[in-house]
Design brief:
- Helix content is 33%, strand content 14%.
- The protein has 295 residues and is an alpha/beta fold.
- The protein has one domain: Rossmann fold, CATH 3.40.50.1820.
- The relative contact order is 0.17.
- The chain has a 7-stranded mixed beta sheet, with helices on both faces. A two-stranded antiparallel ribbon has the order 6-7.
- The two termini are 26 Å apart.
- The protein is globular and about 50 Å long.
- It is built from 12 helices and 9 strands.
- The longest helix has 14 residues.
- Helix 1 packs across helix 12 and helix 2 crosses helix 3.
Length: 295
């Protein structure tokens, strides 16, 4: 696991530069780098943050050899090197990051999209390390135990884009695979419209090329059991992306409603945010303000 911060490494002595530290957990096919612009925006506001690379992500993530070959032969069937990565391993990476910053007065755990699975499991396993949960259009397993359970709901499938982006059989490959090296302009445009529709085209090319192809199969398919005594005791905020085409507003509302019904002692505080699924790319200053607003 690797972590990054916009400030110097934390020392064991000296005054803390901020009341709150934001621990940032990325979504599918991304890595700690996705948060860089948001971290700069947070730093300008005097806030400290720590971004996590989940197992199988980041610049050390293994790539399918066929991804880089001419014509990409076998990309839709080649077994993923991440097939054995478990949700528990991903959650442990988050717990390790949380433990490293526990000396701050307040630790806010932020997750995006599929990152809600390891973040939620980490909070359930170690609630003493988390003072606040912030879900950025991310999976909340309080109502249904797997992200896949929401992704197949009518609230999601009725309007979501991107159904044709996945390659092959995820269970056979061991990963949910996309092709960020596709030479097909229609494929690239569909990925942009799904995840980055409000990012300028000239900027999107950079994001597209930096994506990893594989999300470990276990992340959206492993059931998570949350309890009122542990996960349920942590104050929670949901940043609702109003124009999200990947995790639709209807699905976001469904997750919020079912979580509040299952854990009524601490219902979500909902913070609206305009635009699509990737505000860290399109509107990092607005995202930072939404995060700071919960401080």
């Amino acid at each position: 696991m690797s972590v990054t911060s916009p400030r110097a490494a934390l020392s064991d002595s000296g005054p803390l530069p901020s009341h709150t530290v934001f621990v940032l957990v990325h979504g599918a096919w991304h890595a700690s780098w996705q948060w860089a612009s948001t971290q700069r925006a947070l730093a300008r506001r005097g806030a400290v943050s720590l971004a996590v690379d989940l197992p199988g992500h980041g610049f050390d993530a293994p790539l399918p050899p066929s991804l880089l070959l001419p014509g990409q032969p076998g990309l839709a069937t080649e077994k993923s090197a991440l097939a054995g990565v478990t949700l528990e391993e991903c959650a442990e990476a988050v717990v390790t990051a949380l433990r490293s910053v526990r000396r701050y007065p307040k630790v806010a755990l932020v997750s995006h999209s599929a990152g809600g699975a390891p973040a939620s499991l980490a909070a359930e396993r170690a609630p003493e390390l988390v003072d606040e949960l912030i879900q950025l259009s991310s999976f909340v397993p309080a109502g249904r135990p797997r992200f896949a359970d929401y992704l197949t709901s009518p609230e999601q499938t009725a309007t979501a884009r991107g159904q044709g982006l996945m390659l092959g059989d995820p269970e056979a490959i061991g990963a949910f695979r996309i092709n960020p090296r596709s030479a097909d302009p229609a494929y690239a445009e569909e990925l942009r419209l799904t995840y980055y529709d409000d990012v300028p085209a000239e900027s999107f090319a950079r994001w597209y090329q930096a994506l990893s192809p594989d999300l470990p199969f276990a992340v959206p398919t492993t059931p998570i059991t949350l309890t009122r005594e542990r996960w349920g005791r942590i104050p929670r905020i949901f940043i609702r992306c109003a124009g999200d085409r990947a995790c639709t507003p209807a699905m976001q509302d469904l997750m919020i409603a079912e979580a509040d019904a299952a854990m009524p002692d601490r219902p979500f505080t909902v913070r609206p945010l305009a635009g699509g699924h990737s505000p860290f790319a399109a509107r990092p200053d607005e995202l930072a303000a939404a995060l700071i607003g919960s401080d």
